Amino acid sequence: MSKILIIAEHDGSKLSQVTARCVTCAKHITGAEITIAVFASDPLAVAAAAAALAGVGKVVTITDPKHAHPLAAVLAPVVAKLAGDYTHVLGASTTFGKDLMPRVAALLGVAQISDVMSVEGPYRYKRPIYAGNAIVTVEAASDRKLVATVRSASFEAAPAGGSASITAVSVDAPTPAHTRFVSLSAATSDRPDLQSAQRVVSGGRALGSKENFQLIFNLADKLGAAVGASRAAVDAGYAPNELQVGQTGKIIAPELYVAIGISGAIQHLTGIKDARTIVAINKDGEAPIFEVADFGLVGDLFQIVPALEKGLAK
Amino acid sequence: MRKILVGVKRVVDYNVRVRVKPDGSGVATDGVKMSVNPFDEIALEEALRLRERGEASEVVAVSIGPDDAQQQLRTALAMGADRAILVKTDRTLEPLTAAQALLAVVRKENPDIVIVGKQAIDDDAAQTGPMLAALWDRPQATFCSKLQIKGGTAVIVREVDAGLETIEVDLPAVISADLRLNEPRYVKLPDIMKAKKKPLDVIELATLGVSTDAGLKTVLTEAPKPRSKGIIVKDVGELLDALRKRGLVS
Ligand SMILES: Cc1cc2nc3c(=O)[nH]c(=O)nc-3n(C[C@H](O)[C@H](O)[C@H](O)COP(=O)(O)OP(=O)(O)OC[C@H]3O[C@@H](n4cnc5c(N)ncnc54)[C@H](O)[C@@H]3O)c2cc1C
Ligand SMILES: Nc1ncnc2c1ncn2[C@@H]1O[C@H](COP(=O)(O)O)[C@@H](O)[C@H]1O
């Protein structure tokens, strides 16, 4: 039997969809008994959402004001202590999970499997390396705890329909004072969230300026889509960092991905390979983005994008 | 004055499209261009700038890897590191082992700051920094895009999924460099000559008492499933028709 602990990801009030994707991953592990841990200053709403996910056996809450702004250095000793009763500890491979989980693994004295994309057995998993240009199957020792992060784009979100018990627990672990939260500047937007959106419109260096990048926002709004960007567009200041898609940005799997003025470097492609349908608009017919696009349109984006918008309005 | 240790991993150059060996035993690296992991160049650049601003006095580049990793350490020395340490091993290591080896070096060197890359672009693990911080029992500041030193503390802006987070940590601490922390300098020819005279110490991994068995083994390496080839449409009208047929736009 596998006793699996999933670390919930949330913003203090809402459970992130990536946690529901971790649940689906965990369900593929034979004999999985799934517990979700919610660390928060006020965990009730998040815990209720976690308990409602189908397949979850139990939700445990750890209430502490210090978890209002989670810091890996503060959270990891608590998670490591809580992990005592479990065989597997999973988190999403978001910036939150990538910060926290390796610290937990090291405290437990075990290696970590990053970016699990499929479950081949309780101790056997597939994960991408080299920006997704190779896939490895790794096998972990079954007599040690297994710590892993889950590649969200590889798993559907677990549906609602569960009614797990919610239990408050207290964990006795040291609180280091050496790391302090100062501030978070989070973009607030009415647009869909890039990580979980069904449709995404992304712009690249070709947009040429922050003002021109507005074209991408306009088209996205027409489509009810989230906005993404290439690294070059973010580096140039056309779009904020949280919109970067790719190896070192967000890995996404929307139904529709529209890449506009993006060449298709491997570091970008690795972030979009799981999209159901990829559309590429680029004036260079030889651009590598066309190798992965389902539908390619060769031409000047400054003519095509307004025409697309008009066509959608009809 | 402050000492900074920088992790420098030898990896396949980011421009190379790696190929999987037909027998599934790994990726082909024979004759392939090797470089300093791009994030480690950024890490080193930040360390050099701190030294140039008078906020550090010594920058030490550390690599764990084969003898050939001396090439990447020479590049680091040419960029401006004061000296280098190679922890020699011919095995491919898990990040846990790399972190344990780095810890052994940290114990000898007692740096005030360790800067690593946010991830190595070969294993894409993004683990070594946080693992080293945990083993060392010191703070970590991952995905750093801005770093400021103030006395015994560092203020770090982190690129997180939600936006930008600022945290403050006491030194010593481990920092992992993100893409937008800085733009690394180019190495000039005279610097390459000068680098040849800088000290580069070699230690055998075996002498550090670090176990190379991290409890994880790679059993198969495969090529990813390719996406099926798409089509080129001739105009916006045809594109919209195709998308409507798939029910993607109304
Ligand atoms: C370690 C590392 C990590 C990286 N991580 C990422 C990552 O996470 N995400 C990422 O995106 N990149 C990443 N990169 C960068 C990546 O290698 C590319 O440099 C980047 O993706 C290029 O962005 P781009 O396609 O917007 O720009 P370019 O490559 O410059 O492409 C612009 C494209 O626009 C086209 N174009 C120009 N004008 C027009 C026009 N008027 N109409 C239509 N098309 C036009 C051009 O033909 C060209 O194909 C990383 C690089 C490194 C080294
Ligand atoms: N063998 C190594 N030698 C030197 N530094 C390393 C090594 N492995 C990892 N690192 C450092 O840790 C970072 C993250 O690596 P990884 O955890 O493998 O993604 C790298 O960018 C390096 O700075």
Task: Tell me about this structure.
The complex is a heterodimer of chains A (about 325) and B (about 250). By secondary structure, chain A is of the alpha/beta class. Chain A is built from 8 helices and 16 strands. Chain A has helices at about 15-25, 45-50, 70-80, 95-110, 210-225, 230-235, 265-270, 300-314, and strands spanning about 1-5, 30-40, 60-65, 90, 110-115, 120, 125-130, 135-140, 145-150, 165-170, 180-185, 200-205, 225-230, 255-260, 275-280, 295-300. A 7-stranded parallel sheet of chain A has the order 5-9-4-1-2-3-10, sandwiched between helices. In chain A, helix 3 (about 70-80) crosses helix 4. Chain B has helices spanning about 40-50, 70-80, 95-110, 130-135, 190-195, 235-245; strands at about 5, 10, 35, 60-65, 85-90, 115, 140-150, 155-160, 165-170, 175, 200-205, 215-220, 230-235. In chain B, helix 2 crosses helix 5. Chain B contains 6 helices and 13 strands. The interface between A and B is large, with 86 and 80 residues. The complex binds flavin-adenine dinucleotide (FAD) and adenosine monophosphate. Flavin-adenine dinucleotide (FAD) sits at the interface of chains A and B. Flavin-adenine dinucleotide sits at the interface of chains A and B.
Largest sheet of chain B: 9 strands, mixed
Number of discrete helical segments of chain A: 8
Which ligands accompany this protein? flavin-adenine dinucleotide, adenosine monophosphate
The helix content of chain A is 25-40%
Mean pLDDT of chain A: 96
Largest interface: A-B, 86 and 80 residues
Strand order of the largest sheet of chain A: 5-9-4-1-2-3-10
User: Could you tell me how far the N terminus lies from the C terminus of chain A, measured between alpha carbons in angstroms?
Assistant: 56 Å
Low-confidence stretches of chain A: none
Q: Give helix % range of chain B.
A: 25-40%
Estimate what percentage of residues of chain A fall within beta strands. Answer: 25-35%
Strand percent estimate of chain B: 25-35%
The shape of chain B is: globular
Structural class of chain B: alpha/beta
